[in-house]
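Could someone model beta-D-fucofuranose with this protein?
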Amino acid sequence: MKDWTGNRIRCFLTVLVFFLIPYLLFGCRKVSFESSEGDAITPMDKNLIVVGVSQVGSESVWRTANTASIQKVFTKENGYFLIFKNARQKQENQIKAIRSFISQRVDYIVFSPITETGWDTVLQEAKEANIPVILIDRKVKVQDDSLYVTWIGSDFIHEGRMAGEALEECLSQRKNTKDTVHIAILQGTKGATSTLGRTQGFASVAETHKNWNILEASDAQFTTAKGEEEMERLLKRYKTIDVLISQNDDMTFGAIEALQKEKIPIGGEDGIIIISFDAVKNALKLVEEGLIAADVECNPNQGEYVEKVIKKMESGEAVAKLYFVPERVFTRENVSAHLLKESGE
Ligand code: GYE
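Reply:
Sure, complex below.
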């Protein structure tokens, strides 16, 4: 009679080693993931930490740099399996992405919420699935702050204040001071933390100047196309615009297009003063040329900060609720040295 016992033992051991032990170790996690690059691998084979990232979109140069900082860090070589989803500026796409991360039982969810509200339900689902959520760039307004572990980003209110102080400096350097300074504002995405903070910070400086007249704050959605469109509309509506506060460089590029089309002088002693945000390289070149009077840095390199937080959590260390990334203001006084350093010369 064939030795069935030996076969049974071998069969049992096979099931034990290739199915039961991994199942116990990794729970009911999916055994393979479609990575952003499309190569399906089984992280359990490589013990990779699976990170699901939902990015706002690719609306600006800053966003591209922010995405690059994430993709540079979360690589298989560094021990991570990155699932990256671009929401194309739609909150419903971010919610869908977070739900797909939950169903794939990733280890961490990282996302930049396009606007602050509308996240309670999906973040509650992540909490119930015991998946930690890390916010980058923008914040969420939720009933229960335990729905996310930490937020890493910029102090947008401080950025707005720095813009106001830069305008004070520009005006003080002009010989012919104006009785009234007419200011137009191009705002970013409605309800985004960066828009809200920059608006609040600038307003806190503007309200101390009785002769600063804010003509209008218009929503140009952080894009170059909308920046140009809105600047054209503002130029038609207002006879005099002395200052443009543009809440990101992409909108500034569009606004400069519109101003140059109308042959409106920019900068110098009498031209429109432009104060911008993000300080991306091509904008800093315009600072050097005198077209942008000041550009408030918004550090996009948050990937490395997220990784530090994940490393802390992996080793059981406590993490803070907020991490601010360092920033400064670029003007003609300091921009050339910075660009030189960046170019590695
Ligand atoms: O200024 C802009 C991007 O939230 C800081 O979003 C971010 C902003 C940034 O579209 O370029």
